[in-house]
Each structure stands twice: as C-alpha cells, then as structure tokens.
Amino acid sequence: MRLGITMGNKTRRFGARSCFFLFHFSVLLIFGKAVAELRYSIPEETREGTAVGNVAKDLGMDRTSLADRGLRVVSGSKEAFFDVDADTGALKVRKKIDREETCPGRSACLIELKILVENPLEIHYVVVEITDINDHSPIFPETEQRFQIAEQTSSGTRFEIHAARDPDSGVNSIRTYLISANDHFDIETSQTDEDKIPLLLLKKQLDREEKQKHSLFVTAVDGGKPQRSGTLNVSIIVLDNNDNRPVFIKDTYQVEIFENAPVGTTVTKVSAIDPDEGANGEIEYSLSKTLVRNVYDIFELDRLNGKIRLKGLLNYEESETYRLDIEATDKGTPPLTSRCRVTVKVKDVNDNPPEIEVTSLSNTVPEDSKPGTVISLISVSDKDSGVNGKIISRITSDVPFELKPSYKENTYSIVTKGFLDREMTSHYDIIIQAVDCGEPPLSTVRSIQVQVSDINDNSPRFIQNPLQFYLVENNVAGASIFSVSATDNDVSENAVISYSIARLNDVTSFLNVNSENGQISALKSFDFETLKTFQFQVVASDSGSPSLSSNVTVKVFILDQNDNAPVILYPVSSNGSAEGVEEIPRNVNAGHLVTKVRAYDADIGYNGWLLFSLQQVSDHSLFGLDRYTGQIRTLRSFTETDEAEHKLVILVKDNGNVSLSATATVMVKLVEPKEAFAASDLQSSAKDDEDSHVTFYLMITLGSVSVLFIISIIVLIAMQCSKSPDYTSKYLPETNYDGTLCHSIQYRSGDKRYMLVGPRMSIGSTIVPGSHANTLVLPDRRRNNEEPKMPSADWRYSASLRAGGVMQSSVHMEESSVMQGAQGVLVQNWPTASSAADAEGGEVSPPMGAGVDSNSWHFRYGPGGPGAPPQHLKPGEVPPEAFIIPGSPAIISIRQNQGGEDDKSDFITFGKKEEAKKKKKKKKEKKDKKDKGKDDGDE
Questions:
Q1: CA–CA separation, 554 and 412 (whole Å)
Q2: Distance of CA 235 to the CA centre of its chain
Q3: CA torsion angle 186 191 195 197 (round to 10)
Q4: Does residue 509 sit in helix, strand or coil?
Q5: Amino acid 76: pLDDT
Q6: 121 — pLDDT class (breaks 50, 70, 90)
Q7: Calpha distance 858→521 (Å, rounded)
Q8: What are the structural domains, with CATH classification, of the chain?
Q9: Residues near 83 by Cβ (< 8 Å), separated by ≥ 6?
Q10: In angstroms, what CA-CA distances link 647 with 616, 650, 762, 871?
Q11: Which ranges are annotated Basic residues under compositional bias (predicted)?
Q12: Which helix (H) or strand (E) holds 933?
C-alpha cells in the first residue's frame, strides 16, 4: 500500500480535453485555496479487514473525538468495498476486490471514497488505487486452430494466429508467444495499440508430397511472477496452389455512430477483391474469432456483401470504441484469407438524466436558526460526457433555503437564506432540480422534507380585550361565575397556558381562577345595591422557557334582582310602624285629598315600580286609592249616618317576577268643620316661624340654582365644541329618592343603546340586553340624517329623572305605552306619566329613546299640597329646580308667593321654540285660574 496526497480535484480522465483542466482550475480560483485529497494503494484480492490506512491520522484529526463526530464512509456506488473504524479512524477492506471485475478494460483502477465527519460537518475525499496481481492465465478463444496452406506458398508468408486474452494488466498481461520446435514455422508478434497479435511465419516452403499435415503448439506466456501460460493447438494442412488472396480496398475503416442508433442500422460496408477466377475469386466475409465477446452480441456481418449492421443496442457509457477484425476468404483450394480492421467510435447522446445523492441531512431545524445554517449536503452526477454531463442545480420550490456550491464540482450544501417562523410554516418540502446541458436537456427532481422545531416566541393571546360579563346579584358563593380563555400559537410545552388573577384591588381577593381551564369563581355573594360594577385582570402564562404572558381586563356588571321589599315612608308613627291618623271635616266634597301614602323600593326598574291597592276599608263607597300615586280621596260627601272613624289598610307591592309588598294603616277621623278650622289655625301659627326660615332657604336655593345654571350652560357649550363623533356611555350618579318615580340609565353596547329604568340607579348600574324587563333598546343617535344628535355627556339625567333628596310628589301613572327596540322587538311596557288631579302632581312626556326628540320634553313640579310650605333639603341634596333634561338648553322659571309658599305655577320647561313656551304659558294660566276657582268654591 502507498499513500499519496495530491492538491486540488484531479480528474482521472484528463485525456486531451483541456476544458476539464480549465474548469477545475477555475474552481480553485473561486474557493481561494487547494483542498487535500488522500490516496492509498492496495493489491486486488486483499483479505477482508485489512487496514488500508489511517484517515484520521492523515487528516490530522483528534482521535479522542472521532466517536462523537460520526466518522463514516459515504459511497455513491452500489457496492461498498471499504469502511472506516469510527474509533481509530482506520480505513479497512470490507470485501475482496476483483480488479478485473471492478475496473474491466481500464489501465488504472481507482475507487473514490467520501469521508464524512460531523460536528462540525466536513467531507474529505480518498482515492484508493487497486493494483493488479497475476491471478489469471492467458486463454485462447479456441483450443485448436486450423490452417490450409498451399504448397507453393512462398517463405516469409505470415498467418495470423488466434490471440490469447489475459484479464490482468501491465506486466501481468501477455508478454510473449512461443512455438513448439519444427522445421517450417516460427512465431512472431505484431503490436497494436491494445494487443499483441501472434503471427505464424513460414520459414521454409511446404511440400505436400513430403508431409500433408503439421501439428504445432503455440504457448502464450505472461510477465507475472510466477509466470502463467496458455496453449493453442495449431494444425496445418498443406493444399495445392491458390496463388491470389483477397485484398481489402482499405486496411482500416473509421466509423462514428450515435449510441441511440436503432437495431438493424448499417454501420459500414467492407469490400475486398480477388483477381482469381471461379471459386478462387469468390469472397466470403466473416468476423474474426479473436474479438471481445460482446462484439458478437452487438454487431453482425453479412458474409456475402460485407455490410456491418447493429445486432444489439450501443451504450456509450459502457464502451466508447469497438474494434472489429474482418476476414475476407476466397473459395479456392486452398482458400486464401486477408484481414482489415473496422474501428467503430460511439458518439454520446444525452440519454442519462442527472442523479441527486443526499450525503447528509438534518431533518429538523429550529425556527430561530440564523441565515446560513447548513441543513444538508448533496452531490449530483451524470453518466453522460461532455456538455451532456454538465449539470445545473437549483431549488425550484419557494422556500427560505438555497444551494451553496462546494469546492468540489457538483457538490452543494443546502443552507437557510432567511429567518424561519414555525407558526407560519411548520415544515418545508425542498424540491431540488438538476438539469444537464444536453439537447434536449434531461432533469431529475428530488424532494427533501425539513421540519421546523418550535421555540417559545409567542405570548398567549386573548381573542377580546377587555371582556365584559354580567352577573346576577345574590350569586352562590364559591360557584363558578364565568371563564376566560387564551390561545398560544406555539406547540407542546410552549403552548400550555396557566391562568392567574392580578391582585390589584380588594374585590380580587374574593375571586379565584382555575389555573388550568380559566374558570373564575366568586368566594362571596354580590349585592347590586352595594356594588354595581368592578373590574380586574387575568394573566395567562405559557410553560415555555422563558415563560411569556399576557393579560386581559375583565369588567363585571352586577344585575339587579327583586330582593328588596317596599319601605313605607308615610305614614310612619312614632314607634316606627306604618300607621297614621288623618282628620278631615265632615263637610268636604267628593274628590277631597285625605292623605297620600309614600313608599320607596331600593330595587330598580320594574322591581322598584310600586303599585298601591286597598286591602281593607270600612266603607268602599267613601274612599278611593290611586294605584300609582298612593293618594287617598273621598268618593262622595259624608252623611250624618257615616261613622266618625274609618280604618284603611293599603298594600304597596312592587312589579318584580316574585312580587314583594308592605302594608300601611291610615285611620281617618271625621270632625266638625269648626274643630278642623281650629286645628288648622293651630297648625298655621306653629308654622309661621318655620316659614320665615324656609323663605331664607329658598332665596339661597334660588341663587345657587342660578349659578349652577350659568356654569352648566358654559360647560355645555365647551363640550359641544370639543366632543368627538364617537362617544362612550356614562352611568347616572346615584341620588337619594323616597318616592315612586322611576328613573333611567342609558348606555351603549356595540351599535345599540340601552335604557335601564328604576329608582336609585347609580353609576355602574347595568343589565344584559334582553335578560331583564328593565332594559330598553334605544335607536342609535349617531346615524346621519335619521335621528337627533347625542346629548353631551355632562347632561347626565334622562327625562325620567327623580329629584335629589326626599321628593314629596309621586307621578300619577295613567296608562302604559309600548316601547320597541331594534328591528321592532317588543322590549318594555313603559308607563306614561301625566298630571295628577291636583297641583302636587307632575307630568312627564314620553321617555327618552321612544322616538320623540328630547326638545319636546316638559317636566313640571308643584308644591306638596294646597298651602303646603316647601320641604327642607338635607345637606347634599339638590332641589327639583336644579335638574336639567338632556338634549337641549333649559329655561327655568320659579315663582314664589310673598308669604314664602310655593306657587302652584312653579315649573321647569325645556325647549327651543318660543311658540312652545307661549303655548305652555297660556295652558298654565288657564290651569291656575281653574284651580283658583275650585279653591274659592271649596271655601
């Protein structure tokens, strides 16, 4: 064995083609430096397991890291003759090599190996030369050859003998020919470009009469040590004279034919002439029996006309040249023979597509790999030659990978050319196409699949932020109230999400979340009257390393239930019970106001809408109760036979699904008119001092209202100038209330607006659309050319507002009108308020959102009763005069008697047109005159 190192990529078939040399020289210039190539040499038939050389040592590798680096031989051939010891780096023979079988007809037998090393990825080339040993003896194609030689044949004539064949090469091939001892013949050799042809030389003329047959032995001897030989028996029959032999027109024929020529194609035609006549001049052609065996399978010769035709298919890749020895023999006695040689050169056609070999492949690549990361090594080859064997390789699929050429021709590495994102594409099919330069070009396509592995580069994501949930009050403590859910585009552990609550306020201490499924449970029961809305944050974290998280704001709105019974405000006795005594003169007319029952419900909407009914009365013909206002009036005049004392039990109930109620007892005593007048005088004298203080308070109130009105106008103008087309809903501030007048809250959800009605509505009060009878769906006031504009956010009270403080008047509900929501869906039966029978009632036009412009609203307040003084306001309470109906500027008119009592004409009107003001004013004057006339009649 021998080791050699050559610089560069040496081409085995260099030949006379300088283009290959120029190509490899250009490759060296591109890569900037030569690359080492190992060479070893071993004789054929070497035993299995024999060490050829130590690759690791010759390449200067660290032997301690060989096992980890995966040192191995990558062979492109079907048979692997060598392998490498991954621990020692020794290159060993895997199976015996027969040089003649492996490299038939080649002068030099070279096997090229690829040595692959990983971590980092390297590839080295090793060439092993298989040297010949003398393991074959020369063999003649036949064991015996016969000649017919005329006795007149002159001395010096040469006869061609069958040439022996020896598969060995070099010195082990045939060296010489020997002939057995005789008097007439000797042996000579003729050297051609490939073979030595033995010739039988006639030294002395034959004499048929002396000897008719001669038997000789021709021995072929090779040059091996020890020598091997083969023997041919030659029989010579002496004939009578045939003095002219056939003569070929050419001694040598040169023919070129394409390898794809079909069977039956005429290759060429040989021709010989013989001057003899008769049978001695008739010529027959035949192929020499000394040709290579496969020639007889590919070519056939017409024995009469000398045409050479294709009998089989040609293959340039198997043999580029065929040499045919043609014999022309006449029919004389003895026959004479002559020879010529036909050289057939096969021309290559592009009949072999390129082949793509994947040397090394990493099936998985992390998505955070940098551009230029090596994914695979590939090599391409083509069995054709010349231009037909030149290959152009490229990636045809639209993938973030590219081919990078190696220093060795037709060797490439696949590298990333951009950043990867598994969430967009989790795997790639890299389609590699290799196209040769033949005409027409042939191509080969190979697909390589690469999986992109995940890294934790995506945070959990909530579909909606913020989230809104509606919760009915009095929920069960510890039960689940709702759930949140987030998604993560990563996979496996990077997508496992856990949930937690950000503890930012006191409310979150009563909430708990299931870390696995996001179910949120409340540890306490919520009360709408205490808490109407709250919000908190839920954090979603994945299980990646490092962990990523995101949060969502959860807004919770508490919904009201009918869990509060009505509370009687009047009458109330000194011991706190709902009992009272009323004294009236016996001579009052029908319709006289005896008293008025006042009640309050902490719930909102229909849960807080109160109705009054008589549960018990001594005489149904005497007293009547207004079911909406709680006013008790006489139905007729009293007679002498009527009892002096009557007991009335009034039931007050709300309109909830499960109605709650309370009762009040009123004792009505009939007294003589003088006694009633005396009692009235006593009450008037007791209130004189009180009236002076009330007058002072009313002056302060009037001044405050004026200042508040001016400030409101300024704020309204400023907000109208600065408001944006898109507005958000606000909730009404909570005010105290002790009557039965319902109020409303308007808010927006998406493209719809909702109105909630009921007493004691405060900031944050809300209800899920369609789930409760308290909700109205209002038309969207933001649409163009269809509805009026949205009022400023500072005008917080709707048309159904209630006065701050203790309101002494109830609204007389005479009938109900139907309110419709979006798409005509029936939403609410809304009570329509109108004037009560006396001046202490109020009137309200249809509710906000019922299709009526807010400019048409009128709200009027009157005093608590005839001659009654104004009620004192508690600290922080706002008088009715201070309320402004949203949607329009307000004109406030307040009149007061000299005596300090509120005039029955006190009112608040809202509108823009002066005509509406005048009409309302005339209507008011008529009503005042009518009331005054009634009062005079009563007196």
A1: 56
A2: 89
A3: -20
A4: helix
A5: 60
A6: confident
A7: 47
A8: 34-131 (2.60.40.60), 144-239 (2.60.40.60), 247-347 (2.60.40.60), 355-453 (2.60.40.60), 461-559 (2.60.40.60), 567-671 (2.60.40.60)
A9: 72, 73, 91, 92, 94
A10: 8, 10, 38, 28
A11: 918-927
A12: helix 914-938
Give the C-alpha separation, 648 to 84, whole Å. 116
- In tens, the pLDDT along 684-719 reads 555 455 556 667 888 888 888 889 889 989 998 988
pLDDT digits (tens, 9 = 90+) for 770-807: 334 343 344 444 444 443 343 333 333 333 333 333 33
Cβ(840)–Cβ(808) under 8 Å?
yes
Cβ neighbours of 43 (radius 10 Å): 15
pLDDT band per the 50, 70, 90 thresholds, residue 25: very low
Q: Looking at residue 931, what is its pLDDT?
A: 56
Q: Which helix (H) or strand (E) holds 365?
A: strand 364-366
What DSSP string describes 27-50?
A: HHHHHSS--EEEEEEEETTPPTT-
Contact 799, 723 (CB under 8 A): no
**Nearest alpha-carbon partner for 777 in 821, 744, 819:** 821
Cis peptide before 120 (omega within 30 of 0): yes
Quick check: helix, strand or coil at residue 425? coil
837 Cβ neighbours under 8 A, 6+ residues apart: 591, 631, 633, 812
Q: What residue ranges in 684-785 does DSSP mark as E strands? A: 744-749, 752-757, 775-778
Strand partners, 580: 666
* Confidence at 462, pLDDT banded by 50, 70, 90: very high
Instruction: Note the pLDDT of residue 552.
Output: 92
- The helix or strand, by DSSP H or E, that contains position 23, with its residue range, turns out to be helix 18-31
Amino acid, single-letter form, for residue 602: A
CA end-to-end distance (rounded Å), the chain: 147
The pLDDT value given to residue 10: 34
- Is residue 711 within a helix (H) or strand (E), and if so which, with residue range? helix 673-722
Rounded CA-CA distance 194/319 in Å is 15
Report how far residue 810's alpha carbon sits from residue 14's, in angstroms, rounded to the nearest whole number: 117
pLDDT of 681 strictly over 70: no
Residues across the chain = 939
Report in angstroms the alpha-carbon separations of 437 from 170, 319, 353, 692: 37, 22, 10, 118
pLDDT given for residue 342 in this prediction: 94
Distance between CA atoms of residues 714 and 721, nearest Å:
11
- Interatomic CA distance for residues 510 and 503, integer angstroms: 10
Instruction: Please determine, for residue 335, whether its predicted confidence score (pLDDT) is greater than 60.
Output: yes
- Distance CA(271)–CA(260), nearest Å, equals 26
Strand partners, 449: 429
Give 214-235 pLDDT, tens digit per residue: 999 999 998 888 889 999 999 9
pTM, 2 dp: 0.48
- Phi, psi torsion values for 720, nearest 5 degrees: -65, -30
Per-residue pLDDT at 116: 84
